[in-house]
UniProtKB/TrEMBL annotation:
This is Sugar ABC transporter substrate-binding protein. Belongs to the bacterial solute-binding protein 1 family. InterPro entries: Bact_solute-bd_prot1, SBP. It holds the Pfam family SBP_bac_1. Residues 1-23 form the signal peptide. Coiled coil: none annotated. Keywords: Signal, Transport. It comes from Paenibacillus hemerocallicola. PROSITE patterns: PROKAR_LIPOPROTEIN.
Amino acid sequence: MKLNWGKTTSAMMASVMLAGMLAACGSSGSNGQTKTGNGADKDKPYAGTEIRFVMAVHPWLDTIKTMLPEFEQKTGIKVKIDSFSQEQTSNKLAVEMTAKTSSLDVMFIRPLDETKLFSKNGWVEPLDPFVTNDANYDVKDFIQSSLDSSTYDGKLIAIPITTEREVLYYRKDLLEKNNIPVPKTMDELMKAAEKLNDPKNGMYGFAARGRKVVAVTQFSGFLYSFGGKFHDGDKATLNTPEAITAFKYYGDMLNKYAPPGAINMHWTEAAAAFAQGKVALFTDADAIYLNVADPSKSTVSDKVGYAMFPAGPAGSRPYNVSSGALAVSKYSKNKEAAAEFVKWATSKETVLKTQSAGNPGARQSVWNNPESTKSYPADLVKVINESSKIGVGVDRPQVIGVAEARDIISGPMSAAIEGKDIAAAVEKAQKDFQALIDKEKASQ
């Protein structure tokens, strides 16, 4: 949902390689892994090893902590967890990675913000050689777009632990009353919003994020569906006809049919307006669905419908991303043990448990298992599974300076929402974004 919490990556070793390395190296791993035990138990080759895991505070971690004794008992590996706020976590990782700290083994990173940064700096261990041939782990079971979020320059640098997709929330009763079919295209979405928009009676046709940088991720689905991109490699593409059309469409929807103050709305305000029965149509991440479906938070909980993101000229192209992932540090002395932890934490069995506890995971087999979705609305599960087939694996520019890029892109978005001529705003954004791309390229 773009709840801005985290992404991360993990380096993982195939069990066959682990066994071979252990046989050859006795009580020490091939990467200088230190063990405090004697390493004699072939079923627990890493018995006595302690690994350190740094992660942001998150419900996923709360569930994993309850399951951790199972992993430690099975493997003999002791896991020490350091947990901080997201900002503190990002800062701590940057400091420790810059210092090449060897005592940090597993990291939680935000793939959409940090994949390029961590890859370019050489802070993470590429995972492809270690997971692709492990049939028991089954990396092909992961939703491809979620892996795309953690892939850079053709290398998988993180394993996703949570996902989110852009969907359409709608009021079933209002559409039925007005004989309006569930919008399947951008044209239908706008027509439905126009027909249902009734400000005099406190009803608005549409809501979505409008507040500068936080709106960029939600705008991405509109941009992609109109055939646009943030950039094409090292070339900014904010001034293409497709991108300009997307800027105008998004701006018109919020300018004409959204509640007052839409330009300052984060997901919290937009979802609250929908939950309070003031909005008919709402686009945002599926991960926030409880804010409109929980009777304790929503006055329209029994009237909410969920639908695929509407199609534009390029089809329906919602983001389908991983907002958090696990990685193994390049400087870890315990890479193999760290990899075992990551593989366990992202295994089919573990993901089934974490998803059943409310964390939307990245394994398709788990989404196909009714046990993992029994607390979800049935029509939302259907939308999630369909979106996983067509979703785009990124929802923001793939640059190192993601925050700066989002700020630049918010310029024409804000101009469009305010009903201003966006031509000048688009050209400025194009120029500034290209300068940022060129600057980063020159410094590499």
